[in-house]
Known about the structure:
This protein is mainly α. The protein has 2 helices and no strands. The termini are far apart.
Amino acid sequence: MISARAPDAKGLAxxxxxxxxxxxxxxxxxxxxxxxxxxxxxxxxxxxWPLFTKD
Length: 55
């Protein structure tokens, strides 16, 4: 039998906030490197795929 559980709203909110923070950090660093004309930003996986890498 399938039992119904209440969704973990606090856990979901924490995971979404962590993802948003990772994206914001990557965007900020990428923008700074772009302004400095730093080509390293294209070789850092954490800047290209911030949700899929573990930097």
